[in-house]
Design goal:
The chain is built from one helix and seven strands, in the order ββαβββββ. It is mostly beta strands. The protein has one domain. It has a seven-stranded mixed β-sheet with strand order 1-2-3-4-7-6-5. A hairpin with a 4-residue loop joins β3 and β4. The mean pLDDT is about 75.
């Protein structure tokens, strides 16, 4: 069994072509407690302030629509990229993170663009 992250439950998610059962997995990239509580502060590298939060993954039980935390994505964080350039490397403690906008950074709410929602990958 393995999981698929999707916004809407669909019968097409239930099995792969080999017949292996797939379960719906929810994450907290743009919604949930972590982004709402920690995703809005704007970082400022010159002040040494780079707020990032983890991306949690939840298992969704289709029989009772309950969710259960199964863990966090390793070496991946979400942040507000207003003051960071796409691809910029930032050192936080002993770790180096490379930051990118989720899609296309913009001030306006435009379809297909991420405003200031960004993702950081630990590279060292």
């Amino acid at each position: 069994m393995w999981g698929v992250s999707a916004a809407v439950a669909s019968a097409s998610l239930l099995n792969d072509t080999g017949g292996t059962v797939r379960r719906q997995i929810h994450g907290t990239f743009r919604a949930g407690m972590e982004p709402r509580g920690f995703g809005n502060p704007v970082g400022n590298l010159s002040a040494g302030y780079v707020p990032m939060h983890s991306v949690a993954a939840y298992y969704r039980d289709p029989s009772n629509v309950r969710t259960q935390l199964i863990g966090y994505l390793p070496d991946v964080r979400v942040l507000n990229v207003r003051n960071f350039e796409p691809g910029q490397a930032v050192t936080v403690g002993a770790d180096t993170w490379r930051m990118f906008p989720m899609s296309q950074r913009t001030v306006a709410q435009v379809a297909g663009r991420s405003q200031y929602v960004g993702i950081a990958y630990k590279v060292a």
